Amino acid sequence: MRRLVPVPAERAITLDFEGVPVPAQEGEPVAVSLLAAGHSVLARSVKYHRPRGAFCLSAGCSQCLMRVDGTPNLFSCRVPARGGMRLQRQNSYPSAKVDVFSAIDWLFPSGLDHHAMFAGVPVADRVMAKVARHLAGLGLLPDEVAPTRAQPEFLTTEVAIAGGGAAGFAAAEALGAAGVPFVLLEREEALGGRWRLGAPEAGTPATLLLPQGSGTVRLLTTVLGLFTGAQGRFLAAVSSGPEGPRLMLVRSRRFLLALGGHAPLLPFEDNDLPGIFSGRAVSDLVRRRGVLVGDAPAVVGHGPELPALVTLLEEAGARPALVLDTSSSPAKGAMAGKLLKAHGRTWVQALSVELVRGRKKVACDAVVLSVPPAPAYEVARHAGARVVFHPELGVFVVEADAEGRTRAEGVFVAGNALGGTTAARAAESGRRAAAALIREVRP
Amino acid sequence: MSKALVCPCEDVTVDDVEGAIAKGFRDVESIKRYTGFGTGICQGKSCLTTVAQLLARTPGVSPEAVLPFTPRPPLQPTELSVLASLDVDETEAPLGGVPLSAGPAPDALRSKEPIPARADVVIIGGGVMGLALAHNLAKRGCTDVVVLEKGYLCAGASGRNGGGVRMQWGTEANIELAKRSVELMKQFAGEMGINIWLRQGGYLFLAKSAAIAERLERNAQLHNRHGVRTEILAPDAARDLVPELTLKNVLLAAYHPEDGVIFPWPFMWGYAQAAEKRGVRVETFTEVTGLVTSSGLVREVQTDRGTISAKTVVLAAGAWSPKVAELAGVELPNQPHRHEILSTEPLKPFLGPLVSVLDTGLYFSQSMRGEIVGGMGDPREPVALEQGSTLRFLARFGRALTEQLPILGKVKVLRQWAGCYDVTPDNNPILGRTPGLENLLQMSGFVGHGFMMAPAVAERMAEWMVSGQDDELFNRFNLSRFSGGTLEREDMIIG
Fold first, then answer.
1. Are A41 and A101 in the same domain?
2. d(Cα B46, Cα B156) in Å, to the nearest integer?
3. What is the pLDDT, as a whole number, of residue A119?
4. Contact (CB, 8 A) for A278 and A263
5. B385: in domain
6. pLDDT bracket for residue A258 (50, 70, 90)
7. What is the pLDDT of residue B8?
8. Start-to-end C-alpha separation, chain A
9. By the 8 A CB rule, do A229 and B391 touch?
10. B57 shares a domain with B112
């Protein structure tokens, strides 16, 4: 893990990591600062106290949870660094680096069945209940009472768009051009999604800014759900700003849900070791943060993002130790095979894979899992859309017609919700949904 | 040590998931509950796909049967203080709730095996009542029993409650039932081979009005007469138990240290497995569609998988009981009321008792896993079989909880859900024979506390059914009480 771009002097700050000073760039996620400074273990897992680092860098897993400035269980991948910030690892004794409770992992090599363990054994079950209670839980109570939060913000619009990636952006562009008012909620600090943060793809628009006056865009705003209430349906979201988090309610009769997807963890032995990252995390690190996960990473996965990511890593100076395609039709330049096991103690050092010729152990300094994201179906399901398992893709997708219309009235989906695809296709699905929405608003 | 993780939040492995599938859990909701996957901070974002793939490759499981578990708001962990910032119009009724229905469960979830053509006892409802009764009947030699459950085990209120167990009640009958239930819960793991994680941290009731204070004091005397050592505490003494509590406007508290919390789901699996071992059939995803009656008896139970002729039919469908009873032309006075609940991020243990403010219906406890689990009744909640979640609840509960325990302001909500209380006019259950339909037995109307009463009630009911000997419980709580006479009202209902 190294910085490709040195931290500019005017943005250089220092974080307090359990008493150890860590150099950082102001505003970058603290997980990135720690990784770039060579700290591999950010957390210990809840049950077996296994060492954990960052995996998805998008608040979609639990591997980077830390206590920051006295608040427990924060996604360190989403906490912007500020000078003097206090970072602490949780759930370990005496320290996360040397955690005596990691013995649990060794004592129970085939896992701990909490249903049957000591069930009904006199005395032992009560002792176990006491021990289990004290081992359970992650963070300690916050240090401080929360300040009074800002009053919620209420917006009403013709079309509420959740997510400003390729699909949401393209839809907003089309709605704006047609003069249809919309409110677009985007979690990141800029629109564009993987056009901006993913492995570069052909067809990326020259500008990721929407024309002036075409609807309302709220950045740094995370969608929580689609609710119903006395005044109809609304998206609930939380925006983050200098005054702290603020609740936002966006009322509408029409919704376009383009929330992308989540990075799935692929099942192989010791897949939770620090140093194993999702492909989207790795491209984000290179493109937005100027950080390279490894000089000799093993890149594994399938789908259109895999070769693009290899190119991005190579351009950033990496020499992949292995490019493995786990699908039945491997991409050009990739070997065909299966993931077996990651090796290493507190950072991945090698990867065992099953190739056509047999098992092979490849030394590497990071593992990158690049597979199509698992569609974020949750909010569509809140609204009453049907979600089905797609046997070929192996993921849950939202059932919708060619225009992205779901069975829930006025609720459309676009992009990854329909199944992982290229950014260009995601954008196309956004435009199709926008065309249908325009017809509905202006019949 | 080498492990292949599916759910790193809760340290659930591929072996755990495959083990659950091998045990017979063939739907994602059940696998989630049995293994714990998807219940952590990420709420399934990084793990659900792997579980779906593992299930989909299981022989006999069709892709249509692979459905995601119900996604619960919020999509991202959200601080209680932020949710509390939303003002709620208390004069309005809560409307709707999410997730909205996505249509009926697919046929693929139903067993392809034929349903038995006849049975001595058909129990409608595979919640804790029905399953505990099936187990107790089978234990007494009555094994020709079929339990019909329209969803998965844990789908109804039995799988949606906060796991509270208390002996602090307002009537003798309920105190005695609760005492026996706690005794049986202590033996549960030994008998069934599955842990239920009973933690006796006590129940701490807070009173903010003179009327509630008086009620707590009066009931404490009643408890003491029944050997339940409830103490009345001054606010300062309550603070000794939970130092983080704000006790503004609290007049007094009632505390019984042997009350506590349990983990509800293993009861269903434990009772079901034990009953099945003795020959009971537990049929999930099987809905009752009709009851055929003649000459004062229920003759047949019709389901979406076929018809069963039955000697005795037990109605234990919780809040759905009135709907099912209607199929036999029986009118029950029960009314369904949604109660919403939520769970936070897991914290290290700090909260001993379950705390409840009887004036507002607020309650919260810390689960064995460390989450704060709590809810609050909504006085404007309309009568409906509604199990959706609202932002209004997050706001009301967030405000009430952070007023009572301000240090939780930055603690984050992971998920919210709801279940239905099965409310009767006197807050007491409906048990025993149905006037006019001798072989239709009622076992419903537990007003949100059926879970903790089930072990004792099921034991008494099975004994009564098998022995044929009179038991005053089934007269006291008979449906006929509503047609005349005075009702003995239970006044220790939360919410």
1. yes
2. 27
3. 82
4. yes
5. no
6. very high
7. 95
8. 54
9. yes
10. no
pTM recorded for the entire structure? 0.97
Please list every residue in chain A whose beta carbon sits closer than 8 Å to the beta carbon of residue B63. Answer: 388-389, 391
Q: Does A392 touch chain B (CB under 8 A)?
A: no
Q: Is residue B412 part of a domain?
A: no
**CATH number of the domain that residue B444 is part of:** 3.50.50.60
Using an 8 Å CB-CB cutoff, list chain A residues near B2.
109, 269-270, 341
Residue A179 region, left (φ>0) first, then alpha (ψ -120 to 50), else beta? left
Which helix (H) or strand (E) segment is B375 a member of? Answer: strand B372-376
Of A341, A384, A388, the CB nearest to B100: A384
Secondary structure (3-state) at B469: coil
Residue A144 lies in a domain: no
A158: domain range?
153-262+376-441
Residues of B in contact with A140 (CB under 8 A): 347-348, 350
Q: Where are the alpha helices (DSSP H) in B311-468?
A: 321-326, 391-404, 450-467
Is A140 part of a structural domain of the chain? Answer: no
Q: In sequence order, what DSSP letters do the residues of A14-77 get, joined into one string? A: EEEETTEEEEEETTSBHHHHHHHTT----EE-TTT--EE--SSSSSSSSTTEEEETTEEEEETT
How confident is the model over A279-303, as pLDDT tens digits?
A: 999 999 999 999 999 999 999 999 9
Please tell me which of the candidates A149, A227, A269 has its beta carbon nearest to residue B85: A149
Q: What is the pLDDT of residue A213?
A: 81
CATH code where residue B36 lies:
1.10.10.1100
For residue B357, what is the enclosing H or E element? strand B354-357
A:B CB pairs within 8 Å: 301
Residue B251 has pLDDT above 80, yes or no: yes
Contact of A103 with A110, CB cutoff 8 Å: no
Instruction: Note whether B150 and B270 are same-domain residues.
Output: yes
Which residues have CB under 8 Å from B112's CB, separation 6+?
none
Strand residue runs (E) in B149-305 = 164-165, 203-207, 231-233, 252-256, 260-261, 281-283, 288-294, 297-303
User: What is the average pLDDT across B209-232?
Assistant: 97
Residue A271 lies in a domain: no
Residue type, B185: M
Amino acid letter, residue B162: G
Rounded Cα gap, residues A254 and A90, in angstroms:
42
Which of A336, A370, A404 is the last residue before a domain boundary? A370
Nearest-neighbour CA in chain B from A342: distance (Å): 9
- Name chain A contacts of B8, Cβ cutoff 8 Å: 45, 52, 55, 61-63, 265, 272
Q: Which two tokens stand for residue B410?
A: 């930055």
pLDDT digits (tens, 9 = 90+) for A89-143: 999 888 888 888 888 888 888 888 889 888 878 777 778 888 888 888 899 999 9
Q: Say if residue B432 is in the same domain as residue B306.
A: yes
Q: How many domains does chain B have?
A: 2
Q: How many whole angstroms separate alpha carbon B302 and alpha carbon B297?
A: 15
- Chain B residues touching residue A326 (CB < 8 angstroms): none
Please give the structure tokens belonging to residue B179: 């005492």
Instruction: Answer yes or no: do A146 and B390 touch at CB < 8 A.
Output: no
Strand partners, A389: A396
For residue B327, the model assigns a pLDDT of: 98
CATH code at position A36: 3.10.20.440
Residue pair A64/A31 in contact by the 8 Å Cβ criterion: yes
Strand ranges (E), A291-357: 291-292, 297-301, 322-325, 335-343, 350-355
- Are B347 and A72 within 8 A, CB to CB? yes
Q: Are B410 and A225 in contact (CB < 8 Å)?
A: no
Question: Whole domain around residue B18: which residue ranges?
Answer: 5-69
Do A270 and B48 lie within an 8 Å CB cutoff?
no
Say whether both A98 and A29 belong to one domain.
Answer: yes
B34 touches chain A (CB under 8 A): yes
Structural domain count of chain A: 3
How much is the pLDDT for A122? 78
For the cut 90, the answer to whether the pLDDT of residue B351 exceeds it is yes
Distance separating alpha carbons of residues A396 and A374, to the nearest angstrom: 7
